[in-house]
Amino acid sequence: MQGESGQTVNMAAFSGKLLLVWALSLVIMAASFAGDSLAQTFAIRSANVFDGRTGEASLAFNIIIEDGVIQSLGPTSRVAIPENMSVLDGTDKWVMPGLIDVHVHNSDPAYLQKMLAMGVTSIHLMPNHPPDSPTAFTAHSNDPHHRSPRVHMSLMFTRSFPDNLFPGVYEFQKPLSVTEARDQVRMAAEQGYKSIKIIDDDSVLWAGPETLAPRFTADVFNELVEEARRHNMRVYIHATQVEVTRQAVVGDALLHGTMDMTGDEALWLAMRQSGTVWAPTSSVLLLFGDFGRYAKLLLSDPLLAATLTAPERTQFENWARSPTPLFAPNSEVLNANLEKYLGVIARNTRLALDHHIPVAVGTDGGRVMIESGV
Fold it and tell me: In whole angstroms, what is the distance from residue 88 CA to residue 39 CA?
């Protein structure tokens, strides 16, 4: 990375993972620099700055931050660091916009604090166990002095999946009629939710045809969407099957990513016209379908491995050494088709990009920052 101060380069030539690691290194350094009380006024010297809007980077920039707000930035030759200001050396490291995880279920404060330390500054949270007051929880998390990413929270709706495979792990709304769908969405809006997540999955891709689970009827599905729109709520839809994906283009985002077959031209055109976001979460397939491979992925990255507690590290090392496949209960079919599903999601993500569909990424309950296969 040679060049004069302020040189602009196109980031397409660089590894996204390397960029991410450097960015996270800077975030962790900043956390160490700040200590328990975040420093609000300081400078970052000679850092490389990534522009998330253009995909370009500028080398060797000084950044002046006062009271937590960037006041100026530019080449080191043009932007001087004030005397007596605390300085963080950004040489050979990257400054970039905060990362966004669009698929999170864990609302534990320690987990959210770890996400923030890893550079995730905003999340779409679909809590496994909804808080008593989503408004209070969101306000607390969004307080700039609270160690948590900013939170956008959705209430989850399903007909049966994944309760049929993992009973008791999640809490869902389960409307069986149009009236129940309307009333439950209205209640969510009154409680302060700004969006809903609809899970419409028959569980076949996860556990096989013998576990066929009922899905929402078309009228209940449509009422969930329409009532949410009446309350100006966003709609996120769990879609792993192309049949559901075609129906789900009415939503704001498709979560997980279609994994049974590649989408056709009509599907991508419909998504582009509706402005629907493609949001794959490949890591959850490893999380449920192959513990050993998941563990090896995490342990191979020093930054991710450093987030593990001692008991977690022991568990992950045992998974990585297992001579036989390890997977979640009722996930034999997922394990057997893992490579196929990951490949289909990867191809669909490539097609989404080629068709200029907005793409976002989420971890879906996995360890912070693990996302593979895309």
Answer: 11
Task: Output the average pLDDT for the chain.
Answer: 84
The DSSP code for 95 is E
pTM listed for this prediction: 0.81
Q: Identify the pLDDT of residue 172.
A: 93
**Short-list 39, 125, 331, CA closest to 211:** 331
Q: Is the predicted pLDDT of residue 18 greater than 50, yes or no?
A: no
- Three-class secondary structure of residue 188 per DSSP: helix
In contact, 207 and 247? CB cutoff 8 Å: no
CB 43 within 8 A of CB 82: yes
Nearest by Cα to 21 from 364, 304, 231? 304
Question: What is the distance between the alpha carbons of residues 218 and 203, in angstroms, rounded to a whole number?
Answer: 18
Q: What pLDDT is stored for residue 243 in this prediction?
A: 92
User: How far is residue 245's CA from residue 39's CA, in Å, rounded to a whole number?
Assistant: 45
Determine the residue type at 42. F
Number of neighbours of residue 278 by Cβ within 10 angstroms: 26
- pLDDT one-digit tens code per residue, 277-324: 999 988 888 888 898 988 898 899 887 788 788 888 898 899 999 998
Length reported for the chain: 374
* CA atoms lying within 13 Å on the CB side of residue 149: 28
